[in-house]
Amino acid sequence: MSEKLLELAENAVSEAERFGAQQAEAYVASARSFSIEVENNTIKTASEIRDAGCGIRVIVDNGIGFAYVTTVLDDDITKIAEDAVRIAKASVPDPDFVSLPSYTGKYPVIKGLVDPEIRDLQSELAADLIMRTVDASIDVSGNAEIAVESTLNASHSQRAIANSVGISQSAESTSFYIYSYPTVKLDGEQTSSYEYQISRKLTEINPEYIGSKATEQALEGLGGKTIEGGDMSVILAPLAVATVMGAGFASAVNAEEVQYGRSYIHDALGNEIASEQVNIIDNGLLKAGIGSRPYDAEGYPSQQTTILEKGILKSLLHNSYTANKDQVTNTGNAARPSYSGTPSISSSNFVISSGKGSLDDLISEVKRGVLCKYTADRPNLTTGELSAMLMEGFYIEKGEIIHPVKNTLVGINMMELLKRIHRVGDDTRVASSIISPSLVIDSARVTSG
Question: pTM value?
Answer without folding.
Answer: 0.95
